[in-house]
Amino acid sequence: MVDITGEVLRIIPHDGDMDAAPAELIIADAFKYWRVSLWDDRVARGIKVGDVLRIENARTGKVASRLHAGKYTTITPDRLTLPALSRMPAQNLTVLAVARPEKGRVCIAGINERGEWIRPQGVYVPDVFPRHGEERFRNLCVSKIYVDAWHGRHTRREDRFFIYGAGIVHALSDTERKEFLEEHVDASVDAVFKTGRSLGLIKPRILHVYERSAVHDRAHETYIRFNFRDASGRIYRGWSCRCNAFYKFWTELKHGHRFTYRWRIHRYLRKNETYLAIGLTYTDYGAGNLEYGAHPMVVGVHVVKEG
What we know:
mainly beta, CATH 2.40.50.140
């Protein structure tokens, strides 16, 4: 059994349902963080982000940062002398992907100050779009984040456990956007996925962008797909797009130009310089003959306007 004192940075609900009772807390002092699983609903009542708590008689997990709070655990208000995570190193992530939310989760990806692709794991809607306050992750903006090693079942090279996002610290200017994208663009799709990476950035020629309707969880949803030719000359077809910002752009244009929106979008992408952040799903052990061992998709659409 261990005792800790820290500030509640995040509350993670059961199965991503933000209206459900808390399932886990991310709590931290100045030097480290803990991921606290709540096994007894009674200990979770009334806890809010920003609370400073004393947790006593918590059980340790397989790793030192993982704790379990059960019926013998007590949680009481306390004080901190130093701000949470103030002595823990952060990273500055230039965001290249904010995916559409799925079951309360949001896929985020980008490149840190060392030029490394990072995909934080365990990011939920309130971590990106809080109910009160500005969004904390936005394409081609720099967000300050705290991450740790990820110990999931199907770990990819870029995966990290998401501790906390402190918000956007800088929005790239038009000049900075162009320079950043050109600096990090990959030569081709193969140059990304055949070198062990599951994230990359390409500058393709867009051939076709279209939408398909499908039933998902008993609801009709529209899915956008891309056909494109990468810099090697190879053509790729039917790649699903998960970029949340591009879906919003598509929907707004569709409502404003009902009969011409497809043509307008295609012209917009072809007229300007378009970059696609691409990624792989988890390795699909149930499907064979997958070229890259998993399903590729477009996770971010970035357009630099000419002139």
